[in-house]
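Record START domain-containing protein, 223 aa.
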Amino acid sequence: MNPLVSLCTGLLLLAVSVSAAAQSWQPNREADARDQVSTWTRDVPDSPVKAFRGVVEVPHGPVPVLAAITAVDTFPEWIFQVQASEAVPDTGGERTYMRFNGIWPVSDRDVVLDNSVSQAPESGAVTLHSVNAEGARPPSDGYVRIPALDNRFVVTPLADGWTRVEFRTFVDPGGKVPVWLANLVATKAPLVTLEGLQAQLEKPRFKNAGQDDLPAVFDGIRF
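=>
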C-alpha cells in the first residue's frame, strides 16, 4: 500500500476511534446489587449537555412497571424535578404535558411530549419513547419551553420474573442554563427517577396492576 494512503487510513481510523470513545457511556454510579441503580452519562456531539442513562432490576413483572411509568398523575411524586403533569385529552396516552421545577438560577421549564410504544419480538422488551412535540401548544406563562427532549424507558421481562428497567434521556433545556448545572442534572436525574420508580412499585395501585390498567397506546403489547 502507498505509504501516504496507509498514513491517511490510519489517521482516519484513529479519528473514528476517538470520536466513538468520546460518545461512549461513562459510568457515574456502579450498583452493588441488581436492585440498585447504575448510572452513566455520555457526551453529545455539538452539545454542552450530556445525555444520561440509568438501569435497575425490580422484583415485579413488566405490566406493573409499565403501569407506573405511564401513570401521569403520579409523575411529580417520583420523576426528577417534575412539578406537574397531565395527559393531553383524547390522545390515548400518546401525548403528555409536563412542567419541571427550575434549579436556581434558571426558570421553570415545560414541554409537550409525543409518546410511542414498540416491542422487541424476541426479548419482549417494551420501549416507551417520548420526544418533544414541536408547536403543540405555547409555553405557559412564566415557563421556558424545552426545545429538545428524547427520552426512553426500556422495560425488559427477565426469566426469573423480575424486570430490567433502562431510563435514557437527552434534553436541551433551552434558555441560559450553566453547563455545570445541566450536567449536575444529568448525574442526579437517572438515580432519583429510578429509585422513585422502585418506591412507586411497592404501592398497591401498581403492584397489582394488570394489562387493563395500561393506556390505549399499549394496545397490542402482550407478555
